[in-house]
Amino acid sequence: MPALDILCLGEPLAELNETEAGRFTLGCGGDVSNVAIAAARLGARSGVLGAIGDDAFGEALTALWDAEGVDRAHMSVDRDAPTGIYFVTHGPDGHRFSYRRAGSAASLVGPDRILAEAIAATRILHASGISQAISTTAADGVFAALAKARDAGVVVSYDTNLRLKLWPLARARATIREALTLTDVALPGLDDAALLFGVEDPDAICDAVLALGPKVVALTLGAHGCLVATPERRERIAAHPVRAVDATGAGDAFDGAFLTSYLEGRDPFAAARRANVSAALSTRGYGAIPPLPRRTELDAEITRDAASG
Ligand code: ADP
């Protein structure tokens, strides 16, 4: 039995959020770290793979993983490169993200730092487009990890998470499409996928993703729920009704819940119905991490929903 259920490869980030004019509150982010936390809260044995700097930001992330029960045995601490950070500022047009991540510890994790033993010690390896966008070294590191996962029979999960601030569309397209040929469970979002595949219809997007090889696609549709497809079947799942205040990180919440639920033996459709509720609950509070539901909360919401519906 592998030591972990879900190992998440990518860049953890420290967040500095201007919660009051001129005052910044320290928090944590980074898409795959958020997925690991979402999964741990639902009972999965999740871990993070990558690197942080030997600095206060890395320490904040370490304290968070320890508090959330996320394994960090495969997270190295780099003495010469910093933890990536981002600032959130708030203006009349909503919030604005400013990144300081070039040359970060995570961006230096290339193929030589991806150990087969680490990959073989998990049931699912999860990575994303952001994991590959941060540097060419990291892009190659992710490809090496996906190849090692396939060699070891580890399920590969991949969220397209397209960020055009990090790389041009042509390079993102080539890299992400190649990564999807090595993926078992694809977790794209509608806006990303429309740009990556040049089609907007959710069914056409699922066709395009399945044609690259994944056995399962769960396409998230924001406030419209999700569309789940396998080569044999597909199902549209309406959003779970909630009073949403902030959908930051809803995709990460979805991924963590989907993968946890899938590993518990549910088929992709049942796993997505559960993830759809979990992601909806995560939009009821501010930030990506604080409102992530715990298992008891998710189970209670599903029971309530069944009783009322
Ligand atoms: P991303 O963060 O990757 O852009 P989405 O915005 O597609 O992801 O949201 C992911 C999932 O979160 C959706 O599939 C849905 O389950 C849930 N979700 C997002 N916004 C809402 C909302 N307003 N109401 C209910 N559920 C939501």
Automatic annotation (TrEMBL):
InterPro entries: PfkB_Carbo_kinase, PfkB_dom, Ribo/fructo_kinase, Ribokinase-like. It comes from the Bacteria. Residues 19-293 form the Carbohydrate kinase PfkB domain. Coiled coil: none annotated. The keyword Isomerase does not apply. Keywords: ATP-binding, Kinase, Nucleotide-binding, Transferase. CDD domains: KdgK (cd01166). Transmembrane segments: none annotated. Its EC number is 2.7.1.45. GO terms for molecular function: 2-dehydro-3-deoxygluconokinase activity; ATP binding. Belongs to the carbohydrate kinase PfkB family. This is 2-dehydro-3-deoxygluconokinase. It comes from Methylopila capsulata.
